[in-house]
Amino acid sequence: MDAAEQARIRTFQAPQQMRAVWQVVSTFGPYLALSVAMYALAKVSVWLTLLLAIPYSGLMIRIFIFQHDCGHNSFFSAPLHNRILGRACSLVTLTPFAWWRRVHARHHVSQNNLDLRGYPADFYTDCLTLAEYEALSPLKRRLYRISHNPALIHLLQPLLVFLVLQRLPFDTPLSFAAERRSVYGLNLALLLIFGPLIYLFGIKTVLLVHLPALTIASIIGIWLFSVQHRFEESQWFSQADWTQTGAALHGSSYLKLPRLLRWFSADIGTHHLHHLRPSIPNYRLHDCHEACRETMAVVTTLTLAEALKTPSFALWDEKRGRMVPFPAE
């Protein structure tokens, strides 16, 4: 990538205040309106309430991407505004802002680095090499296959991650005081929100409104995170060969989604560009991608149909330079 292209990309890094504010209004407005509608409908029809859980979950995903941008200080220009919005988003996503910001920052400096694997928070993007897998004992190979079974990690685990795991400051040293406070602070805030709701409407209604949408959002959200890194053409590098540019353009995919799904996912499918320049806000990623097509042409493009097949790619084959499924047993 030449200097002129780097300069062109940098022009998209500056947040745009009015676009950011409009994103907040046009997303949180419908989210709050749907919340009210679902609580009202819960007394009338379970099925109508469950139907609304589909767009409700989409808004949860979009709000998570806002929180993600705030963690990079890219949504607004002012760091304070990013922190305020990030913490507000955490009330919807159930994800502690400061804790997740640190966890995610490490992901950006170790993505697709063979020498920096094994970080628990990167479970959904990490992998063994084929040679490492074949060197395991039969029992350990079986356990690894079970723990990385697509049905388990993409359907059963996601809800547990958001409901249980993120209520604890796992893998967070005692010295990370701010991150640990964010976990406990969010837990307290959720008690103050959901306690009165349960008192007013009953626990069955609260679960009907929130649990189906959270289940859908967590499954899709973790799938989006995983598919951007564990696809057949994804490249892994040793520490000596790793660069941010190489990992971004060859270790991240471009998930080409229909316009409506792009909106709900806040263009996180333009993941290669996000890893290349994390300071570009979500609302400028697509424009940057379109403006830099020559550079972006080297990135693996996945359609939605192709992306649905990627969970089967579980191991990095160093000899063939590609991700592969588990070998037949």
Automatic annotation (TrEMBL):
One of its GO terms (cellular component) is membrane. The chain crosses the membrane at residues 20-40, 46-65, 182-200, 207-225. It comes from the Bacteria. Keywords: Membrane, Transmembrane, Transmembrane helix. The keyword Transmembrane helix applies. GO terms for molecular function: oxidoreductase activity, acting on paired donors, with oxidation of a pair of donors resulting in the reduction of molecular oxygen to two molecules of water. One of its GO terms (biological process) is lipid metabolic process. Residues 46-297 form the Fatty acid desaturase domain. Signal peptide: none annotated. This is Fatty acid desaturase.
